[in-house]
């Protein structure tokens, strides 16, 4: 009787390389430094801005609105997500999947990846919810604006909530499976399609938020330069 084909996790990449690319399992190039740099730069800008806003609204003028609480929740959600990303990064984040093998995974890393993918949607939703509520608070007297804001909140909420369902369902281990085996299974690989859809929707919703207040701002009775300044402030939401 012929012996079964040997299965060596150290020779099996986590993803197929692009045509013409040879996997490098020995010394793969990592872009992980970009994660540290980007996280440090964005948090160093975001933290004082959020602190100044909340200090002013909560302690100085003492006029708290829904978007203030949403901003506070979003800020801490981003901190948690960034921490998870860095925890993942310390292992192999920044390396192309085709340069990593099944042997490079362990259950701890696989759990971090699963949690990271699962909370990605809710974190983005809290950020965009704070912007929707800000626009609603400023232009909520306009009926068409109220409708568009509520529509945006509902649609983004549904799409990003799907993250909490899709990734645990498709990438959690079944009976007798480890997290490593589940993450490398064909079932989990099908979640990539949803990841691409989620990323595309993220870009589309960014532009939706960018263009949403433009008609209302242009209709304001103020000099053109001030209108441009107000639009520039809303445009920072794309960051």
Q: What does this protein structure show overall?
A:
The structure is a single chain. The protein has 239 residues and is mostly helical. It has 9 helices and no strands. Helix 2 packs antiparallel against helix 3, helix 3 packs antiparallel against helix 4 and helix 3 packs parallel to helix 7. The N terminus is likely disordered.
Keywords for this structure?
239 residues, elongated, mainly alpha
Profile the largest sheet. Answer: none
DSSP, total strands: 0
Helix content: 55-70%
Element-level helix/strand string: HHHHHHHHH
Q: What radius of gyration results from the CA coordinates?
A: 22 Å
- Low-pLDDT residue spans: 1-5
Backbone shape: elongated
Strand content is under 5%
- Terminal-residue CA separation: 62 Å
Per DSSP, the total helix count is 9
The structural class is mainly alpha
What is the average per-residue confidence, as pLDDT, rounded to a whole number? Answer: 83
Write the layout of secondary structure elements.
Layout: H1 32-60, H2 66-89, H3 107-139, H4 143-171, H5 179-183, H6 186-189, H7 191-211, H8 214-218, H9 224-235
Summarize the entry for a quick read.
The chain has 239 residues and is mostly helical.
């Amino acid at each position: 009787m012929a012996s079964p084909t040997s299965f060596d996790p150290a020779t099996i990449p986590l993803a197929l390389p692009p045509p013409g690319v040879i996997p490098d399992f020995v010394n793969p190039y990592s872009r992980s430094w970009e994660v540290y740099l980007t996280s440090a730069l964005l948090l160093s800008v975001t933290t004082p801005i959020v602190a100044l806003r909340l200090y002013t609204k909560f302690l100085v003028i003492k006029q708290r609105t829904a978007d203030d609480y949403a901003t506070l929740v979003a800020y801490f959600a981003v901190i948690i997500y960034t921490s998870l990303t860095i925890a993942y990064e310390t292992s192999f984040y920044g390396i192309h999947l085709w340069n990593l093998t099944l042997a490079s995974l362990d259950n701890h890393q696989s759990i971090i990846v699963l949690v990271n993918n699962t909370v990605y949607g809710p974190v983005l939703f809290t950020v965009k919810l704070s912007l929707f509520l800000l626009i609603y608070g400023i232009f909520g007297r306009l009926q068409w604006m109220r409708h568009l804001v509520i529509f945006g909140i509902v649609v983004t909420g549904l799409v990003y909530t799907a993250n909490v369902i899709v990734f645990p369902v498709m990438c959690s281990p079944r009976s007798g499976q480890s997290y490593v085996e589940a993450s490398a299974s064909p079932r989990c690989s099908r979640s990539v399609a949803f990841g691409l859809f989620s990323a595309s929707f993220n870009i589309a919703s960014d532009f939706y938020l960018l263009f949403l207040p433009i008609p209302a701002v242009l209709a304001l009775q103020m000099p053109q330069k001030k209108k441009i300044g107000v639009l520039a402030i809303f445009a920072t939401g794309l960051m």
